[in-house]
Amino acid sequence: MSFLAKIFRPKPGSLSCYRQHGPGVQHRCESSKPEVKDQVVMVTEIAEEFDDNKEDQEARIEKIRNKSRLSEAHRNMVNGKLPYPESKAYWHDSVQYKRRMFARYGVEQSQVYPGIAWPDKEDLDANKEYEQVLTPLSIEEMVSIEKTKILEEEQKLKERYDTIVDKLKTNDNVIVQFHNKQKKKTEDQLASKKQKDKLFEEIRQHFGFNIDPRDEKFQEMIEIKKKEELKKRRIEKKKLREEKLINMALEIEKQQSDIKETKGGTDDTAKEKKE
Length: 275
What we know:
Layout: H1 3-7, E1 16-20, E2 26-30, H2 34-65, H3 72-78, H4 95-110, H5 121-134, H6 139-169, H7 171-207, H8 216-274
Antiparallel strand pairs: 1-2
């Protein structure tokens, strides 16, 4: 009995009363007045309305307790329960969905028959066709191909190892060549810098005062000096070429004279033998 029903319970003599007819026996008697019956109906309606309000209040309290603001399905998933106890979409009745729910939540929560997890004849045929398309080769052929790949990789590694060993043998020579190259590069840079400084100094001496390198006269003088330097180099190269040609001619002449001498000596020995 609800709280309001207890409060508005009819008093003896007005709504209902109990009379004793012997020990342990009670008979309920009600008044036949119409206003009393209306009052009973009103009290009953108030009690039912209070019960409904209590249920609504409990629902509101439960909603306030849900601080996550997740939907019912997501809250069930977080708590390890089935997201949808009843089917709410057409895919909830599909075999794939039921298999997934069975695998995730078990028999009791998913309420799915375990036999659905095994494939039927259509699934087996589809899987066979898929495997034939995916792997048309037999197991023996696949094993043979994998062995060949492994042997090829081992051969590549061996060749790379041999190449590294060979390069390590000549590593000292490579290091020496590298240092010589760096040394030559540094020397060339220093020579170029000295030549540039010398050129600037000649230009300053020509003008008789320090001049800004960005000045037009300075730039014109640099061009003139560069042309003179280029002409000088050409003359030096020409001299070196002429000297080289002269040396080659002298060497050829010397070789020819040596050949003549050797030939004359052989002729003399031949004549002596004849005599």
